[in-house]
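Exercise 7.
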Amino acid sequence: MLKTAVIIILSFFAVIGFIECILSLLETVSTSRYKKIKDIALVVELSGAVENVTFLLNTLLLQAERISYRDAVTRVVIRDCGLDEDTYSQIHCFCEENDNITVEM
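Solution. The predicted structure, written as tokens, is:
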């Protein structure tokens, strides 16, 4: 009984390992054409007054980290489409603390 349970558990892990090997191989083959990517930019257009700006910017930075690919530098670009002064000053202060986020006019 114990021997059968051990064989079933080991077989289960062997199948999972085999599936992971296949998925890794498919990822390598399907992303080989993206080797020339050096810079990834997440561009967001904002206008008017935006509530919870720091929460939004932190979320954007986390998303930029999630979509980073190999050695490519991922950055966030905020495009100013008529932000009010308070929101712009909060974004500017946040940009001074973080190198991966910039503001464009």
